[in-house]
Write a structure and sequence with these properties.
The chain is an alpha+beta fold. The protein has a five-stranded mixed beta barrel. Strands 10-11-12-14-13 form a five-stranded mixed β-barrel. It has a two-stranded antiparallel ribbon with strand order 3-4. Helix 2 packs across helix 3. It is globular and about 80 Å long. It starts with a helix and ends with a helix.
């Protein structure tokens, strides 16, 4: 019995001894942009200790594969820029090829034979496959599209807005972030100041701000942004344009489809503008706020069908971010008590 009880411990010790630290050190240090050897040696030691704790019953090869993936990820970090940003707005995850797929399906509905002949779709039994008909991947038509003539892949990405070095930066990528939190972001700044965030490694949480600090760090930069728009001017703003507005919450509720919504107004537009949550996290923030709260809203302009008897489309907001002035947080309770006094 004693021999059997010692066998697992012996195998685990052999596993630890067999992992070749030098293999991972070499991977991290090779090339001009590699780590310094002493830094890599220290890091690899920590990684080996970690993988042995997290995978005590796995084989040497399994642990080696995990460590190789992690070391390659760490090498890629050195090939991208690092930014520190405060998340003020984030949209839901969407398929970047969603609109192209929609156009292909609409073409098939309109004329199935033509859509198949033109290569817009391929039909396999009852399944319709949307195809990529874009010959170039850029507007200047200089970069051939490697996916041309192939099925349109699903590319999940989201849009977000971060305060980086005192400016609001638009960011795209397959990442997760919550408003009111500061992150380390890994990626590359592209044309027009748009940040493309890496999926691996993703944003790393640095700090969660208090409501007071979130408002203080957002107020001036939002007011100075080129996206800042008077609430009463929204009816003249084009559909799908992203704006930043300030106002007071007049109403908090949910739609018939259970989407959280608010109505914000000011003295210039007392009837208010409706805002609908773009994603679950923002919806929870909206539901926690009350009537009378002063807020900054970051959202995309929506144009809905006019109601009966109206000529112009109604304007609303797809809310990606909302920031509450903490000094107005308790106004809802006060307003409720004043109602009780007024209508006694």
């Amino acid at each position: 019995m004693a021999t059997k009880s010692n066998t697992p411990a012996k195998k685990e010790q052999e596993t630890e001894d067999t992992l070749d630290a030098q293999e991972f050190i070499t991977l991290l240090t090779e090339g001009e942009d590699g780590m310094k050897k002493d830094e890599a040696t220290d890091l690899v030691g920590k990684l080996i200790d970690g993988v042995n704790q997290l995978m005590p019953r796995d084989t040497v090869d399994a642990k080696r594969q995990v460590l190789l993936v992690k070391c390659r990820d760490l090498r890629r970090v050195g090939e991208v820029d690092k930014f520190k940003g405060l998340c003020i707005a984030v949209d839901d995850m969407k398929d970047s090829n969603g609109y192209e797929k929609y156009l292909a399906r609409e073409a098939y509905k309109l004329n199935p034979q033509r859509a198949i002949k033109d290569g817009r779709v391929v039909k396999e039994g009852d399944k319709i496959i949307e195809m990529d008909t874009r010959q170039y991947s850029d507007k200047a038509r200089t970069k051939p599209n490697k996916n041309f003539g192939k099925p349109l892949p699903t590319i999940e990405r989201r849009e977000g807005y971060f305060v980086i070095e005192g400016k609001i930066v638009r960011a795209f990528g397959n990442y997760n972030a919550e408003i009111g939190r500061v992150y380390e972001l890994f990626g590359n700044m592209g044309d027009g100041g748009i940040l493309n965030i890496n999926k691996t490694p993703g944003p790393r949480l640095v700090e969660t701000l208090s409501d007071r600090d979130f408002w203080a760090q957002s107020y001036d930069v939002c007011g100075a942004s080129e996206m800042s728009t008077p609430l009463e001017s929204l009816p003249e703003v084009d559909k799908n344009k992203t704006v930043i507005v300030m106002g007071t919450i007049q109403h908090v509720g949910v739609t018939s489809s259970q989407t959280p919504m608010i109505v914000i107004n000011n003295d210039e537009i007392p009837e208010g503008i409706a805002g609908f949550a773009a994603q679950e996290g923002v919806g929870k923030e909206m539901e926690a706020m009350g009537k009378g709260s002063e807020v900054i809203v970051i959202g995309r302009v929506l144009k809905t069908k006019p109601k009966e008897g109206e000529k112009e489309p109604r304007t609303a907001l797809n809310v990606m971010g909302i920031i509450q002035n903490p000094q107005t947080e308790g106004f809802s309770d006060v307003l409720g008590k004043l109602d009780e006094i007024a209508f006694k």
